[in-house]
């Protein structure tokens, strides 16, 4: 089968063996997949991953139990043991024995076929297109912010970074009516915010007043954290959505001085994300900048690193 493999360098291959499903797993034909910042970080060495990349996708189950056969699905990325101490205490996304699709010890979705545990699957409502459903994973990650910090009408919130994830996080936060702004450097993505009634602010026009209650850092770069430090008020909260290939956390002393709470934030609730997409609560379709065939995967990666694009998708099996 075909796939995009990372092993010291990213390469397109058409001679990959088909995946062998483990106990409780099925095989899914990938229809459409999204490239995200984490994929780029992996190609710079993050997580030390080797294998098929990719973890944002929608596909059709081609082998597995009758419950799932033929269903169009999206898939949670953490594959967990259900028996370790963390799994047994409700922290299964942090399972001590977990593999993570396309990130830790398990092949991902930038391939014709992918194996996944059936318990990770969510059926996609018929009313959702593939182009919408492919956003379930990053949108779930955006909803995770709401589970970690309390935000209401009086909360002053800045989202730092107007890229793919920043735009999803901002749309989710906008629903709760907080005083919200999105800080970025890209005119296209800031215009997207304005169109959605979200206050855009260019990083160039910024004055750092340390007056925000909550800052959500979505830039994917260490400078984003520094900027967040300059925005958050004493005893405020920074939510970190970025992962970096290099340490790059910079100086954390302002965290101590200003008694800031830093909350790491990762994967989130898929069912909420799918329900939100079905209600058309968030606009995702106009976030798709370009779609490439799988064999053009390297080109797609380059395009998605370009600041002018928002989301780049891989059309794999349609
Ligand atoms: Zn476990």
What is the helix fraction of residues, given as a range? 25-40%
- From the N-terminal CA to the C-terminal CA, the straight-line distance is 15 Å
- Overall form: globular
How much beta, percentage-wise?
25-35%
Uncertain parts: none
Number of beta-strand segments: 18
Notable features of this structure?
318 residues, alpha/beta, seven-stranded mixed sheet, 18 strands, 29% strand, binds zinc ion
Report on the structure:
There is one protein chain. The protein has about 325 residues and is α/β, with parallel strands linked by helices. The chain is about 25% helix and about 30% strand. The chain is built from ten helices and 18 strands. The strands form four sheets. Strands 3, 5, 6, 9, 10, 17 and 18 form a seven-stranded mixed sheet that branches. It has a six-stranded parallel sheet with strand order 13-12-11-14-15-16, sandwiched between helices. The longest helix has 13 residues, at about 135-150. The protein is globular, with a radius of gyration of 19 Å. About 45% of the residues are buried. Zinc ion binds near residues 80, 83, 84, 95 and 97.
Concise description?
The chain is α/β, with parallel strands linked by helices and about 325 residues long.
Can you lay out the helices and strands and say which pair or pack?
Elements: E1 3-7, E2 9-13, E3 25-34, H1 37-42, E4 51-52, E5 56-63, E6 72-75, E7 78-79, H2 85-88, E8 99-100, E9 113-117, E10 121-123, H3 130-133, H4 136-148, E11 156-160, H5 164-174, E12 179-184, H6 187-195, E13 199-202, E14 212-217, H7 222-231, E15 232-240, H8 253-257, E16 261-264, H9 270-278, E17 288-293, H10 297-305, E18 311-315
Parallel strand pairs: 11-12, 11-14, 12-13, 14-15, 15-16, 17-18
Antiparallel strand pairs: 1-2, 1-4, 3-5, 3-9, 3-18, 5-6, 6-10, 7-8
The structure holds zinc ion.
